[in-house]
Amino acid sequence: MNDPTALLAELVRIPSVGGSQGELLIQTRLAALMRSAGLEVDQWPLDLDALTARPDFPGMEAPRSQAWGLVGRLPGSGGGRSLMFNCHVDVVPPGELSAWTDDPFSGKVDGGRLFGRGSCDMKGGLAAAVTAVLSLQDVRPRGDVLIACVVGEEDGGLGTYALLERGWRADACVIPEPTGLAVVPAAAGALTFRLRVPGRAAHAARRGTGVSAVEKFLPVFAALRSLEARRNAAADPIFDRWDLAYPIEVGTVAAGDWASSVPGELIAEGRIGVALDEQPGQARRALEEAVAAACAADPWLAAHPVAVEWWGGQFLPARTGDEAFVKAVIAATGGDAAQWAAPYGSDLRLLTAAGIPTVQYGPGDVDLAHGPDEHVRLSEIHEAARTLVRLAADICG
């Protein structure tokens, strides 16, 4: 089997932050690699205007003027089922650079681990999938094996949405997201919200004549924490490994425009987890009602209520109903892989909604994703690649 280490290091060194030029460059590099390896390649520009105008578009947070779809196909010898490996190539920004030990896009190998933004989420899984597909060329399964490289997963699911719109399908799919080599047949959803908290601007020296939007945000934030506790009181047991199955978090807060002024508005953006089998409208109403209750308890907010807006990525919860496929993936791991549900949204919901049995299985610890010194163990990448080869032999024949 080919060594995926050099490939992973090269991919990490391409800073494919969502919406950046790197997101385009990595697709070009992967397309060239697939063509040179003899795969059939479909590479196409996404019609962003048409896709984003569709009523079921899943949302997009990173601004893009262009994006590309990419599928590599290893054609089968005939008569077998098809299997897709769905891999997102986009990564989140590296954040505060001083928090990193090295360049966040170094691809450095140290102690059996490869470091860099995206190494865990999910270029390690991408490298494992590419390695597996190239290894299968010598045995050529009866069914097709596809590797789909998609953009925009981190901010809504643009790439997989476009992939399905183009007509690509398979009889089953593995998303090699970082699961620590566990098998993940279900994922919670996540909805992105924005809160506009009103205040009244004034000179800070006369703050009593104003109303601080920062101060008025505090009871609203407390209400969100209380809502989170209630929504997690009876989570599905498949989430038992997590302290919170359906987290609610405020990720950005901005208020005021001058240090010596009472801030007249605060804007907070965050996400709310959507429970398995919960409709997104139920989650929206729960948050809106919690915010409204906090406003009603405060005289200022009762007269000037917080506005709730829904924007950006809208990830629905999903679970795979095909138990036979789940068991096949577990068997391909050697039969002793753990099984749990993910507390975060993913493209699993788009693929299962299209009728494609899908699980997440891949190298890396999700706790390292999106953080400084992100890394993945090379031994897990090798094991994941071997598992994907065994699975393809089983599913595709």
TrEMBL record:
Chain ranges of the Peptidase M20 dimerisation domain: 189-296
Keywords: Cobalt, Hydrolase, Metal-binding, Zinc
Pfam family, one: M20_dimer
Coiled-coil segments on the chain, per record: none
Stored InterPro entries: ArgE/DapE, Bact_exopeptidase_dim_dom, Peptidase_M20, Peptidase_M20_dimer, Peptidase_M20A
Needed co-factor(s): Co(2+); Zn(2+)
GO MF terms held by the record: hydrolase activity; metal ion binding
Family designation: Belongs to the peptidase M20A family.
The protein's name: ArgE/DapE family deacylase
